[in-house]
Every structure is written in structure tokens, then in C-alpha cells.
Amino acid sequence: MSKFTDPAKELLDKVGGSENISVVTHCATRMRFVLNDPDKADVDAIDDMDIVKGTFTQAGQFQVIVGNEVASFYNEFTKIAGVGDTSKEDAKEAAKQNMNIVQRLVAHLADIFTPIIPALVVGGLILGFRNVIGEIDMVNNGTMTLAESSQFWQGLYDFLWLIAEAIFHFLPVAITWSISRKMGTTQVLGIILGITLVSPQLLNAYGVPGAEDIPVWDFGFAQIDMIGYQAQVIPAILAGFVLAYLEIWLRKVIPQVVSMIFVPFFALIPAVLVAHVVLGPIGWEIGSWISNVVYSGLTSAFGWLFAAVFGFAYAPLVITGLHHMTNAIDLQLMSEFDGTNLWPMIALSNIAQGSAVVAMIYLNRKDKKEQQVSVPAAISCYLGVTEPALFGINLRYLFPFIAGMTGSAIAAVVSVGSGVMANSIGVGGIPGILSIQVPHMLMFTIAMLIAIVVPFILTVILARTKMGKDAYDRLGKTRP
Q1: CATH fold of the domain at 5-98
Q2: Contact 210, 242 (CB under 8 A)
Q3: Which of 206, 248, 396, 464 is most buried as measured by Cβ atoms within 10 A of its Cβ?
Q4: Spatial contact of 247 and 267, defined as CB atoms under 8 Å apart
């Protein structure tokens, strides 16, 4: 008998039995359930189990934090429960039955950007390294950059742009591929569609605003502007879905014996044509409008208020999953303004929530079981991934969550008020400073110190108030 046999039986009983499990899978530290009736799960009893480090519900999934032994526990659980192995994609699809319309829309947006995020993070780090090499005067008594002082560093600076350009300028290729992958259509067609949006024969998107003579395809009766959509998000999303739905429809009406020939032909050509004639220009205008509204709001006389609200509300957005929408806005800001003033606030929010967890590590330093969750969660937060900290610690106690939100709001006001801009999306935590434009690094550092210090102090203070007492009483813990 495995050491996980009894805990697995206990968890199965407390989630409502096998008949209440629609789908179950696991990630690095958590069991992920899609339950037929979430109300049948005895959440309080599950939280009291020795093997359980915490629970939460997100995106239609009931998640149980087990820790690093989750894979072995999962194997024992599925054997006892009699439920089959299921992929994470299947779990996500099943979870959508528990979502409302808004949650489903956000889930679709998340499904598009999640596979691309590793590339975006790498691209942000590369631009950050280029920042250090080519923008900071750090040699020859602070009068020269590394790139100016050495041919090696100049060569490295130029070489790194090859990768950064591939990630950000050719982003539409990744987006249209990701949509075809999500929709279950032919992925290579999605890639080809994306390439047609950024082809070298088109006028580069960055050259369009000042261009006096835009090349055209001349069909005699009509002309189409040969404009590229480098780094454009919304045109790529619109075009990708048109291609996917067109292919899905054609599969239904074209006989299978000739589908390999005619489905790609009649899907790709109309999709490319519609993308350049209709969707591209419309998507460009929509993207420009969104980015202008956000940028104008953050740089206006009331920018501090916008920053305070966003800084305070970003962590709750993560809980709902709505934070995925900021990826598209950040990328649009980068294409319109050569940088983003939104992303620095996201990095600061992650740091603030991590600092609140550090305060809880200090307060509960004698609770060894909790530290199995809190220590990795704090590290994860400081590196840009907040979910373990939010659901494993901060939301359970609530007062550190509020402390983190407050510290984030103050840091966001400082960041926006001093005009901090990032070159790109990067690691959304302390290493994110590499993505900040060089003239703004000092002020971002000050904002980071606020995001570290304020939540820590505020968490310790709130722990000694009635809010803290109520939290510890609710969790059956002794307040330090």
C-alpha cells in the first residue's frame, strides 16, 4: 500500500466521490479537478487534510495544492478513483462548462497567448540585455556603452536583435499559428497566413505613418495597399479566426476524398485577401484606439488615478483570469509607442504580492507545513508567477492580499507619475528591471523598493489587527 493510499481515499470522498469528477489532471504542484457539482466538495475539510497545502477555484477548475509529490499522489488517486488519465487541454475544455460568457471569452484569449508567453518573456529578456549592452554608459568613466567600447559587444548587440525582431516584429505569425492550434485546424496554414501579414515585400508597419507612397496590388478595377502588420496583435487575431472558421466550414461541405486539395486552397486565399482588404485596416484602427486610450489615460493629469486603480486591481484580475487581456494591450502599446507604460505596473504588482508572502513567512516561521507552500510561492512571485502566492497564502488570510494590493497601487503611482516605460514584456518580477528603458531604471528601482517594503510592513501591521485575528481564527491557527 502506498503512503498516498489513505489520503487519496480521503480526498476522493471529500470531493464528492468518483461520480462527481468530470475530469482530473495535475500540474507541477496541484491537482486540477473539473467537478460535475462543485458544491459537493467539502472545501474546509479538504483544507484540513495533512497532505493539502491549500485549495482554490480558477477558470472552472477546483485546484488542490499538494506540493512536489503531486505526480505520485495523482497516480494513486486516479487508480483508487477509477478515473482515466486526461490531458490539460481536455481539462480546460471540460472546465468551460462551469464558466459564464465573459469567462469563456477570457479563456479563449488566454488559450491564444499562453503558448506564446515563453517567447515573449525571452524576447523581453533579450531586449533587456541589449539595454545593458548598448544603452547604459558604464565604461570609460561612464562615457561609453559596452557596445561602443568593444567589437565583441557590438556584435553581440547586433546579433541579439535577430532574435528580438523574430519574436516581436513577426508576432502575427505566432498568433495565427496559436489560433489554428487552439481551433484544431491546419497549423501550417496558420503560419503561412501570419507570414503574409509580415512579408518583406510589404511596406513595414513601422514605416507606414510617414510613408508618402504606399505600394499597391493593382487588379485594374481595384487596388489594395501592400501594408505589413509587424507587431500588430488585433489584425492577426481577426485574420486567424477567419481562416480557422473558414477551414472548419469547408471541411463540412467538401467531400473528404478531395479535401486535402481544396480545403487549404479555398481557406487560405480568401483569408489572406480578407485580412489585407478588411480585417487588417479595421484591426489596426481598433488596436490604435485601444493603445491611445490606455497611453493617454496613463500620461494625462489623472494618470496617477488610473495607475492607482490598476495597481490595486491587477491582482484581483489575476484571480478572474482577466489579466490575460493586458498581454494584447501591452503588445499594441509597444507597436504604437516603442514601449509600454502598462507592463511595469504588472511587474510591480507581482513583486508586491510576493513581498506580502515574505511577511507571512516571517509571521508564520514556526509553521513548517505552510512554508512548504509559502517559500516557493514567494520565489515564484518575485519571478513573475503569482498564482501559487495568491491562492496558496494571500487569499486564504486575505489581509496580506490587501497589503499587496495597497503596496502595488502606491508603486504604480510612482512608476506612472515618473513616466516609467518598458521596452517590452519581460519577466514580471524583480528581473523585469532589465526590460525597463534605461532613462527610467532609477525610478523603477524606487518603485520596486516600495513594492517590496510597503506590503511587508503593512502585512505585519494588519496581522495584529482584528482583520488578522479573524483570519487566523478562521483558519484555526494561533496568531503569532
Answers
A1: Gyrase A; domain 2 (3.30.1360)
A2: no
A3: 396
A4: yes
Instruction: Tell me 469's DSSP state.
Output: H
pLDDT one-digit tens code per residue, 28-57: 677 888 888 888 999 888 988 888 877 877
Instruction: From residue 54, give the alpha-carbon distance in Å to each of 66, 328, 434, 449.
Output: 8, 32, 33, 29
Amino acid at 405: M
Find residue 60's DSSP bridge partners. Answer: none
Question: What is the tens place of the pLDDT at every residue in 280-339?
Answer: 899 888 888 888 888 888 888 899 999 999 999 998 887 766 676 787 788 888 888 888
Give the dihedral of Cα atoms 143, 146, 149, 152; nearest 10 deg. Answer: -170
What pLDDT is stored for residue 443 in this prediction?
A: 95
Provide the residue type at 223 as one letter. Answer: Q
Average pLDDT over residues 341-350: 93
Instruction: Name the phi and psi angles at 203, rounded to 5.
Output: -70, 120
- Asked whether the beta carbons of 332 and 291 are under 8 A apart, the reply is yes
d(CA 450, CA 385): 19
Using an 8 Å Cβ cutoff, are 372 and 53 in contact?
yes
Question: Do the beta carbons of residue 31 and residue 78 sit within 8 Å?
Answer: no
**DSSP string computed for 347-366:** HHHHHHHHHHHHHHHHHTTT
Identified catalytic residue from 3, 18, 19, 27? 27
Is residue 132 predicted with pLDDT exceeding 90?
A: no
Is 207 or 321 the better-scoring residue by pLDDT?
207
Q: Strand 223-225 and strand 216-218: pairing?
A: antiparallel
State the greatest distance between any 2 C-alpha atoms of the chain, in Å, as a whole number: 81
**By C-alpha distance, which of 292, 393, 323 is closest to 65?**
393
Q: Which three cell numbers stand for residue 146?
A: 559596452
Q: What residues pair up with 223 in beta bridges, in sequence order?
A: 218
CA within 13 Å, CB half, 332: 23
Angle (CA) 15 19 22, round 5°: 80
Rounded CA-CA distance 148/139 in Å is: 9
Q: What is the residue-wise DSSP string for 131-151?
A: HHHHT---BTTTTB-HHHH-H
**Which DSSP category does 80 fall into?**
H
User: Does the pLDDT of residue 362 top 90, yes or no?
Assistant: yes
| 27 among known catalytic residues | yes
Rounded CA gap, 402 and 312, in Å? 9
Q: Which residue has the cell 509580415?
A: 198
Query: Taken in order 436, 441, 446, 452, is the CA torsion positive or negative?
Result: positive
Q: Please report, in angstroms and rounded to a whole number, the separation of the first and last CA atoms in the chain.
A: 39
CA–CA gap between residue 480 and residue 477 (Å, rounded): 9
Rounded-to-5 percentages of helix, strand, coil across the chain: 70, 5, 25
pLDDT of 450 > 90? The answer is yes
* Residue 389 grid coordinates: 502566492
